[in-house]
Design brief:
Two copies of one chain form a homodimer. Helix content of chain A is 41%, strand content 22%. Chain A is an alpha/beta fold. Chain A has two domains: 182 residues, Isopropylmalate Dehydrogenase (3-Layer(aba) Sandwich), CATH 3.40.718.10; 154 residues, Isopropylmalate Dehydrogenase, CATH 3.40.718.10. Chain A has a ten-stranded mixed beta sheet, sandwiched between helices. At the A-B interface, helix 4, strand 6, strand 7, helix 6 and helix 7 of A face helix 4, strand 6, strand 7, helix 6 and helix 7 of B. Strand 7 of chain A pairs antiparallel with strand 7 of chain B. Bound molecules: 3-isopropylmalic acid (IPM) (2 copies). One 3-isopropylmalic acid sits at the interface of chains B and A. Chains A, B: Its EC number is 1.1.1.85. Chains A, B: InterPro entries: IsoCit/isopropylmalate_DH_CS, IsoPropMal-DH-like_dom, Isopropylmalate_DH.
Chain lengths: 350, 350
C-alpha cells in the first residue's frame, strides 16, 4: 500500500510520524507492507516553494492509495492573499481536485472520557454518531464576486449550487453507511427557505425507496443544532451539505469534549484522505505534548475504508481503548489520578 | 401606544392574551395606555382568508407602534405550496416588508433554572449573551432557481448577497448594544471561504474605529458553534449574517435549557416586532400548559426598546424573577420540590 504523508504545519509534523509508527507496527504484526512518502502542504509548502499546494504534492497524492494529512495553517500565514493561504490555497483545491465529495466525521465518546464533555455525563457517555458532510459543492465552490455600487459601497455576491448528481452520490453513501450501522439516517437541510435544500430533500426521498431498511428523517439545520445539544444520542448517521456540515461537524466534535481523539476521512475519488479533526495548534507545536490519538485513529479509518483491512483497523482501536483504560492520558484529556504522557510516549503505549 | 397582536397558531392564541394581561397590569400601575388590536397570521390566517399574511394584517402592523407575535406554523399547513406556508408566506415577507433587519436574541440563564441546561451547571449559570442576527438579507432573500440539466437531473442555484450598507446598519447596531452592555463584540463570519464574509469583516473593521471602547473580535462560524458549547460565557454581544444567525441563535437558546423563557425582538424599521423564540408547539396547544414567560418577557423588550419605558420593562422582569424564586414553574421548567402552574396561573402569579 502506497501512502502519501502530508504533515503540514504546527503539530502536524509531530503527530503524523507517530501515526506512521503505529502503521508500521500493524504492518509487522499482520505482515502488510506500507510504503510512505512525505510531501509538503500548507504554510510549510508556501515557505519552501511559494505555494501551499505544490504540483508535486498533488501528483504524489494522485499516485498513492491513501493520504494521511496532519493539519495546515497558523498565524504566520494568515495575512497572505486568500489563494496562497493554507486553507483556501491548499485544503479546498485538494478536496476538489481529488474528488473528495464526502467527509466522514464520527463523533464518539469513550465512557472513560465522557466527563470531559461540556454536556452532562448521561447525555454523551457512549455517544456514537457519524456525520457525513458534502465536501466539494455548495457555497464553498460557487462563483464569487465583488461589485462597486453606484451610490458608494460594494456588494458581494456568491452562488450556492447543487445538482441532483452531487446530492445523490453523497446521500447514497450515507444510506449505505447507515445500513452498516444503526440503520437510522437524518438528512439535514433548510428546506423551508432554500431551493437547494428542496432539491436535496427530493433526492433523499427518491433514494430512500432503495433503502427501505433505513429509518429516514429530515431535520432543519437550526433545529438540528439544538437537537445535537439537547439529545445527541438520538442520532446515528447524519448527512448534510457543505456549509451546514462545516458547522454541525465542529459542533458535534465539541460535544465529545475530546477533540484530540477524533479522526476523519474524506472520500469519493480515486484516493481518500485521512486526518485528525483538530487543527495545527501552533501554540503547542514542538513540545511533545500534542495528542496523537486522532491521527492514529485516522490510520485505523484508512485501513478499514481504503484497504478493507478490518482486523488491522480494529487492532489499532483496541490498542487505543486499552491504553485509555490503563489510565494513560495526554495533557488535553488529563484527569485527576491518571498518568500523563507526551506525544511520543502515548504512541509507545499504543 | 398602539400595539398589533398577532397570536398566530398553536399555543400562540394562548400565550399572547396572557402577555397582554401583564401589559395591562403595567399600564395600570404606571398609568400608561396600551391599545391592542388583533390580526390573523400564519395557518390561522390561511384558513380564514386563503393567505398566511393578509393585506389587512400588514396594514395593521404598519399603522402600529409595535407588534407582538405568538408563533406560526404547524403540521396542518406543512404541505401547502411554499409561498402559502406560514413561515415562507408570512414570517419572511413580514420581516422584509417591515424592514426588520436586526433580530435580537438574548440567551440568558437564571441561576434558579441553570440545572435544566444540557451543559454543566458552571458553564451556564448566570449566562447573559445577546446575539444579533441580520434578518433581511443573505441566502434567505437571494434569487432562487431550478434548472433542468441536459444529461438528466436538475440544478438548484441560489444567491447569497450582502451590500456594505446592509452589513453596516446591523453591525452599527451591534456596536451600540455592546457599548450599553459588557463592551465586547464578537463578529461571526466565514471569511476564510466566503466573499460576503470578507466584505462583512471589512465593514466591521471600518466601524470598529468609531467604537474604540468596544473590544472586538472576529470568529469563524464553525469555531463559534464550538465555543458556544465549550465556554458560552466568553461572549457578550455577537453579530452575524442571516443563515449563520439562524443556526447560532437556536444553538445558544438550547444551551439555556429553558427555551420557554426566551424573548426576542426584530427591529430596524418604523415598527418593531417582539416574539418568544419558541415555536407554535401544536402538540400542547389548548391545554393551558404552555409557558407564557417568553412572550411576557418579549413585552418587556418592547417596552424598553420601542417605547423607552425602562422602569416598566424592569418591573416585568423583576416580577418574573420573583415568581421563579418563589418556586413557581410551568411544566417545561418544572423541577422537584417546585410548584407547577398552568399558563393562566403563571401569569396570575407574575
Ligand atoms: C479551513 C476551512 C476552509 C475548512 C472548511 O471550512 O471546510 C475547515 O473548517 C474544515 O472544516 O475542514
Ligand atoms: C421558520 C423559519 C423560516 C425561520 C428562519 O429560518 O428565519 C425560523 O427558523 C426563525 O429563526 O425565525
Amino acid at each position: 500500500y502506497k501512502i502519501a504523508l502530508l504533515p503540514g504545519d504546527g503539530i502536524g509534523p509531530e503527530i503524523v510520524p507517530q501515526a506512521v509508527r503505529v502503521l508500521k507496527a500493524v504492518g509487522q504484526r499482520f505482515d502488510r507492507e506500507f510504503q510512505c512518502e512525505t510531501a509538503l502542504i500548507g504554510g510549510a509548502a508556501y515557505d519552501a516553494t511559494g505555494h501551499p499546494l505544490p504540483e508535486e504534492t498533488l501528483r504524489l497524492c494522485q499516485a498513492s492509495d491513501a493520504i494521511i494529512l496532519g493539519a495546515v495553517g497558523g498565524p504566520k500565514w494568515d495575512n497572505l492573499e486568500p489563494h496562497l493561504r493554507p486553507e483556501r490555497g491548499a485544503l479546498l483545491p485538494l478536496r476538489k481536485q481529488l474528488g473528495l465529495y464526502a467527509n466522514l466525521r464520527p463523533a464518539t465518546v469513550n465512557f472513560a472520557l465522557a466527563d470531559a464533555s461540556p454536556l452532562k455525563y448521561d447525555l454523551v457517555a457512549g455517544l456514537d454518531i457519524l456525520i457525513i458532510r458534502e465536501l466539494t459543492g455548495g457555497l464553498y465552490f460557487g462563483e464569487k464576486r465583488r461589485e462597486d455600487l453606484p451610490g458608494g459601497g460594494q456588494k458581494a455576491v456568491e452562488t450556492l449550487e447543487y445538482s441532483t448528481e452531487e446530492v445523490e452520490r453523497v446521500v447514497r453513501l450515507a444510506f449505505t453507511m447507515a445500513q452498516k450501522r444503526g440503520k437510522k439516517l437524518t438528512s439535514v437541510d433548510k428546506a423551508n427557505v432554500l431551493e437547494s435544500s428542496r432539491l436535496w430533500r427530493e433526492v433523499v426521498e427518491e433514494l430512500a425507496k432503495e433503502y427501505p431498511d433505513v429509518e429516514l428523517n429530515h431535520m432543519l439545520v437550526d433545529n438540528c443544532a439544538m437537537q445535537l445539544v439537547r439529545h445527541p444520542k438520538q442520532f446515528d448517521v447524519m448527512v448534510t451539505e457543505n456549509m451546514f456540515g462545516d458547522i454541525l461537524t465542529d459542533l458535534a466534535s465539541q460535544l465529545t469534549g475530546s477533540i484530540g481523539m477524533l479522526p476523519s476521512a474524506s472520500i469519493g475519488g480515486q484516493v481518500a484522505l485521512y486526518e485528525p479533526i483538530h487543527g495545527s495548534a501552533p501554540d503547542i507545536a514542538g513540545k511533545n505534548i500534542a495528542n496523537p490519538i486522532a491521527t492514529i485513529l485516522s490510520v485505523a479509518m484508512m485501513l478499514r475504508i481504503s484497504f478493507q483491512l478490518e482486523e488491522e483497523a480494529a487492532a489499532i482501536e483496541r490498542a487505543v481503548d486499552s491504553v485509555l483504560q490503563q489510565g494513560y492520558r495526554t495533557g488535553d484529556i488529563m484527569q485527576p489520578g491518571k498518568i500523563r504522557l507526551g506525544t511520543v510516549e502515548m504512541t509507545d503505549a499504543i
